[in-house]
Design brief:
single chain; 3-stranded antiparallel beta sheet
């Protein structure tokens, strides 16, 4: 069984650290070396408060 974690920029469940809203957005963590060279991704922002302090939802296992 092969497991490949979500890459930088792929859609994953996120949580805002400021207002605690759960939403789906681009993965803020991962290997950015080659992704930044070839693809421009927007950073994840909370749709509720606009904060960029978001993390992947720790309760969702991939």
């Amino acid at each position: 069984m092969n497991f490949m974690p979500p890459r930088y920029g792929e859609l994953v469940p996120l949580v805002c650290l400021k207002c605690h809203k759960h939403f789906v957005g681009p993965n803020p963590t991962g290997d950015r070396i080659f992704e930044d060279l070839f693809k421009k991704r927007k950073k994840a922002k909370c749709p509720e408060c606009g904060s960029s302090k978001v993390i992947r939802n720790p309760w969702v296992l991939f």
